[in-house]
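Worked Example 4.2. Consider the chain below.
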Amino acid sequence: MRGLSNSCLEACAVLTLMAVLMFSASSCGGQKNGSSEDAGDYSHIDIQLYPNDYEDAFAVKDLLTGLGYIVVVGGSSEPDPVELSMENPSPVHLVTEDYECIFFQDGDLSIEGRQINKQDVDSGNNVCVVGRDAAPTLFEGREDVLNMELELLGDRFRVIGVYEYEDESSALFTFVPITAAKKMGDVRIDYITVCLERGKDVRAEAKAIYDLLKEEGYDVSMNYYDCYDRPAGSIPRAD
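Applying the procedure from the previous section yields the following structure tokens:
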């Protein structure tokens, strides 16, 4: 009986460990599923610049990208974030390439067409990516909207991608290269985010990036997250 009891305890311990691992995997990111992209395998570091300057944000992006980091700069139009219409108040996110590692962390993502890429950002192309759920509202009932044009920020933007995402809170967003928006008016930098592949020590990476930026003369603070949006720590602005 004692041996049976021990076996049961060992089995329960194994099942408990498996449950913990399964919970961690589900809460830390999605898995590939058919044509879906695996956009959930990242921890990340948010960098705050003082002052929060547009040119400095891109200089930091170029510096860190040159060292192999995935860096996303995001913003909003001044004075207020853009909304597509009163009937569909979905914000237009102004982004650089690789924004998927921020917005699509917690579920399966699939896309018809393509995402905004580095060439779009470097050239300030008037392109956009829209959510499948938002398309009928944006285009008067049409669902096949790839390569159609949408009026945003006082100009016309061509739809290069239509995405589907299981998280309803992110399923209606529209994405535009931040550099295209900058051509049409002032842009506020909302975040500079470094996405780290899972398995990297987010605390050590944050400290290394902080020290590098300080050496380069930037005044910064940081918050870092070890799993999607789970806080892991911060580095305050130097006195």
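Residues 1-30 form one domain. Residues 217 and 223 are 19 Å apart (CA to CA). Compare this with Example 4.1 before moving on.
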